[in-house]
């Protein structure tokens, strides 16, 4: 009996140590085996973490701009002889770990039993320490060891390490849905996850049939228990409403040569979730309409499985849960796809440290479409920015009468494996005659051939999806640089006519004769200097306008050529003056300074 009492007391003591962490709104599991648990919460000035790890040695946690050890911001701690310890470190470009002179992480508490270590620590959102990383970086790295930190520093963690992409300051929120609200699931059933690092799995579903118009008001992940670390992101695309019902249930690896042709009809993203997110709730005055003739009928769900441990025999049944109601909101939500028209005419030379593409949602398209459908404009309330593996940064720029407004959205550390709609802090009015530019920065360093605009992850895109209301008949507002100027750059003089093949064939000069234009572009001897000149030239080329309605219909401006508009200088983020770590400052001054930085604007939730 005494033994039982001792066990219960020990368990109660360890549980009580966890209770210090009450109030943590967000949590996730970082490793594939469920040994490393992370909780966090934040306010307008501070973020607090609690980590629970299956080890009695040291634990490490860090922030990295790209998920790598190099140039990361690290905290390492543990419990020795009943006393918790914590140190602030950073890694240099060669991955060597150094103790940070400015110790900005504060130990809150720590406990340890025979199997687990719990540490809680906090940090200011803005530290003004060059060795600290911005809390908005999405590369979270972790490690642990069976031994504590010794006099010579932490021992190498070996295989007990990893990384995850997460949005710490804006992970979404759990919203209480009224009890009894109807829902339907879009769910994979026993998908065998391949024995490889990364898999994209697609399946077509039919939206819930309803007898009258309803509004979808929330979408949240439905992740199979134990697979929280396996399912990395889920995208939902609207498909052609005229699909044959025999296509329903068709599932296959996405972007695969043998995938069903019907997958290609599913282009517009209507929802996106990524690990760390807790779902998306539409604003209380807006809903996603289902049940009418113009609403989505079929959708394609894309699930990204992240399996770096190469687990075998894994079968997954994850998906999404969509809550819907007959109690209609004031407005129907719509989605506009803006940016670069997906085409082979969007091309990136190889070996470029930085290459910039711009996709224009032109004033001509918005003038015609909004001018006829909604002269008072529409209100954008969320944005998803989308590129593929070469993408490094994206901005959605907004112009009115040639004056640049604040960006609709921006991401200076774009991560292909972490894409989801982000609610704007304030809705943005989009008027007839406004102009949007989706600006994408890429790196093609290490690639030997051209990178083409296309659907596969090795191809590229440059898109911004705008969630807005009220819904109008505008599906895509995009541009594409005309091809003639791009071909002239490499010396093409004439193409074969009539055009009977795609990609079309080159006639002269002789060195390109009987090559497709894509082969000619690859044959050209690219250098960094030539690539930079090509980039500068492309940004000045006339653009083909894409201005399409739902389905196959188009606005009359579609297909016309327009020149890139001359815009006044871009908006620059305000500079921030940092105080020294020892200099006191008032909370008001600190918060004001914090709010001036774009990168931590999420922290200013209610000022």
From TrEMBL:
Source organism of the structure: Oncorhynchus kisutch (Coho salmon)
Name recorded for this polypeptide: Monooxygenase, DBH-like 1
PROSITE patterns from the UniProt entry: DOMON (PS50836)
SMART domains to which the protein is assigned, alphabetical: DoH
Ranges for domain DOMON: 34-145
Tagged with keyword Glycoprotein: yes
GO BP annotations, alphabetical order: dopamine catabolic process; norepinephrine biosynthetic process; octopamine biosynthetic process
Sorted UniProt keywords: Copper, Disulfide bond, Endoplasmic reticulum, Glycoprotein, Membrane, Metal-binding, Monooxygenase, Oxidoreductase, Signal, Transmembrane, Transmembrane helix
Annotated signal peptide: 1-21
Topology versus the membrane: Single-pass type I membrane protein
First-listed, main subcellular location of the protein, grouped into a coarse class: endoplasmic reticulum
Record localization: Endoplasmic reticulum membrane
Keyword Transmembrane helix: yes
Gene Ontology cellular-component terms listed: endoplasmic reticulum membrane; extracellular space; secretory granule membrane
SUPFAM superfamilies: PHM/PNGase F (SSF49742)
Organism superkingdom: Eukaryota
One Pfam family of this chain: Cu2_monoox_C
PANTHER family, per database record: DBH-LIKE MONOOXYGENASE PROTEIN 1 HOMOLOG, DOPAMINE BETA HYDROXYLASE RELATED
Single annotated GO MF: copper ion binding
Record family assignment: Belongs to the copper type II ascorbate-dependent monooxygenase family.
Cofactor(s) named in the record: Cu(2+)
């Amino acid at each position: 009996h005494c033994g039982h009492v001792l066990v219960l007391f020990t368990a109660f003591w360890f549980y009580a140590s966890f209770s210090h962490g009450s109030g943590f709104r967000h949590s996730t599991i970082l490793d594939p085996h469920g040994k490393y648990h992370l909780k966090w919460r934040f306010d307008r000035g501070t973020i607090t973490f609690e980590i629970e790890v299956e080890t009695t040695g040291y634990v490490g946690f860090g922030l990295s701009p790209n998920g790598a050890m190099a140039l990361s911001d690290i905290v390492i701690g543990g419990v020795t002889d009943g006393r918790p310890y914590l140190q602030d470190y950073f890694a240099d470009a060669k991955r060597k770990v150094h103790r940070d002179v400015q110790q900005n992480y504060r130990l809150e508490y720590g406990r340890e039993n025979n199997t687990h270590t719990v540490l809680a620590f906090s940090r200011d959102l803005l530290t003004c320490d060059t060795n600290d990383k911005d809390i908005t970086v999405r590369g979270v790295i972790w490690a642990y060891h069976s031994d504590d930190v010794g006099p010579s520093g932490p021992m190498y963690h070996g295989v007990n390490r990893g990384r995850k992409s997460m949005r710490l300051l804006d992970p979404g929120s759990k919203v209480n849905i009224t009890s009894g609200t109807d829902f339907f699931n879009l769910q994979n059933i026993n998908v065998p996850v391949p024995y490889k690092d990364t898999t994209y799995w697609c399946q077509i579903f039919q939206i819930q049939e309803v007898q009258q118009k309803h509004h979808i008001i929330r979408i949240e992940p439905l992740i199979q228990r134990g697979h929280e670390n396996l399912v990395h992101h889920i995208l939902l695309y609207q498909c052609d409403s005229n699909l044959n019902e025999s296509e329903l249930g068709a599932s296959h690896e996405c972007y695969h040569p043998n995938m069903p042709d019907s997958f290609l009809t599913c282009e517009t993203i209507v929802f996106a979730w990524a690990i760390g997110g807790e779902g998306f709730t539409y604003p209380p005055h807006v809903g996603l309409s289902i049940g009418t003739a113009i609403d989505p009928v079929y959708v394609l769900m894309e699930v990204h499985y992240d399996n770096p441990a190469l687990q075998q025999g894994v079968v997954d049944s994850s998906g999404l849960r969509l809550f819907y109601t007959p109690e209609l909101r004031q407005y129907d939500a719509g989605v506009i796809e803006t940016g670069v028209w997906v085409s082979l005419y969007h091309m990136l030379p190889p070996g470029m440290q930085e290459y910039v593409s711009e996709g224009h949602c032109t004033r001509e398209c918005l003038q015609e479409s909004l001018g006829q459908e909604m002269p008072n404009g529409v209100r954008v309330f969320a944005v998803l920015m989308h590129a593929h593996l070469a993408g490094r940064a994206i901005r959605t720029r907004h112009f009115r009468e040639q004056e640049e407004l604040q960006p609709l959205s921006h991401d200076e550390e774009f991560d292909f494996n972490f894409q989801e709609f982000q609610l704007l802090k304030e809705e943005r009015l989009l008027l007839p005659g406004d102009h949007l530019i989706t600006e994408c920065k890429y790196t093609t360093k290490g690639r030997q051939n051209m990178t083409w605009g296309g659907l596969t992850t090795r191809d590229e895109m440059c898109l911004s999806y705008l969630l807005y209301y009220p819904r109008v008949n505008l599906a895509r507002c995009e541009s594409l640089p005309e091809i003639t100027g791009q071909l002239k750059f490499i010396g093409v003089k004439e193409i074969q006519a009539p055009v009977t093949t795609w990609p079309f064939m080159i006639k002269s000069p002789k060195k390109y004769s009987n090559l497709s234009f894509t082969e000619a572009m690859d044959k050209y001897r690219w250098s960094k200097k030539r690539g930079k000149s090509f980039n500068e030239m492309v940004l000045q080329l006339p653009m083909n306008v894409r201005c399409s309605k739902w389905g196959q219909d188009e606005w009359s401006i579609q297909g016309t050529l327009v020149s890139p508009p001359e815009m006044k200088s871009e908006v620059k983020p305000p500079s921030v003056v940092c105080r020294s770590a020892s200099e006191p400052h008032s909370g008001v001054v600190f918060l004001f300074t914090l709010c001036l930085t774009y990168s931590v604007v999420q922290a200013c939730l209610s000022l």
